UniProtKB/TrEMBL annotation:
Residue stretches spanning the membrane: 79-98, 141-162, 168-187
Gene Ontology biological process terms from the UniProt entry: protein secretion; vesicle-mediated transport
Protein name: Golgi apparatus membrane protein TVP23
Species of the source: Actinomortierella ambigua
Similarity section: Belongs to the TVP23 family.
Pfam families in alphabetical order: DUF846 (PF05832)
């Protein structure tokens, strides 16, 4: 009877040991599969990360089109006037889109100028509420496109001077004038927005501190009055 009981115990114990090893092997395989799946996942594209993908496309569309027309327009047509008109039209469209649409949507800034009666010009700025966070992808690409484009046109202007293609300097001059207007406008607008946010933050801090001091004095006074009464 004792031998029979030992055989039964051993026979019952052996499958348990084997089953435990098999389960651990399955868990390892599942872990490896999960790691492989995570490794194969690709990060989302820039347009998917953007809050305004259509606006982001148009932020680069016309300025890239003007640069490509300037570089490769001579391959399709030898008419300088046609290339000049196409470049200027795209530069004007780009100026309007950046000034009125992409700056407001991508970074929450807007600028414009008004002429006074005495002939002077006043710059006016609008900025978003600081409590509304920006999309970092939109902000980074907006400022990159804003500053890279005039740098490229400056390089083209230097090449025109050294290669004596003075007629193409007209295109470069128009491009730099329109691009630099947005650069100056948005740079000043960004500085004005930061000053407003800093002033508002300081006033809120001072208001909260003064409110806390007044509240503390009132609470101390009330506690003293109640203590003297009771």
């Amino acid at each position: 009877m004792a031998n029979t009981d030992r055989q039964n115990l051993l026979s019952d114990a052996q499958p348990m040991g084997v089953g435990g090893n098999m389960n651990s092997g399955n868990n390892n395989n599942n872990t490896i599969l999960e790691i492989d799946v995570d490794a194969n996942q690709q990060p989302p594209s820039i347009l998917k990360q953007s809050s305004h993908p259509v606006c982001l496309i148009f932020h680069f569309l016309f300025r890239v089109g003007a640069i490509c027309t300037y570089l490769f327009g001579g391959w399709f047509s030898g008419n300088f006037v046609l290339i000049f008109v196409l470049c200027v039209l795209q530069l004007v469209f780009d100026f309007w889109v950046v000034k009125n649409v992409s700056g407001r949507l991508l970074v929450g800034l807007r600028w414009w100028s008004e002429s006074r009666e005495d002939g002077s010009t006043t710059w006016l700025f609008e900025s978003r509420d600081p409590s509304r966070p920006l999309n970092p992808v939109d902000s980074r690409l907006f400022w990159t496109g804003l500053y890279v484009a005039p740098a490229i046109w400056t390089f083209f202007g230097i090449l025109c001077i050294f290669t004596f293609k003075l007629s193409w300097l007209l295109v470069v001059a128009v491009a730099l004038a329109l691009n630099m207007a947005n650069v100056i406008g948005y740079t000043q607008c960004d500085k004005d927005a930061k000053q407003k946010w800093a002033t508002g933050f300081a006033s809120n801090m001072l208001g909260g501190a003064s409110g806390g001091v007044v509240g503390g004095l009132m609470s101390r006074g009330l506690s003293r009055m109640t203590g003297s009464l009771f």
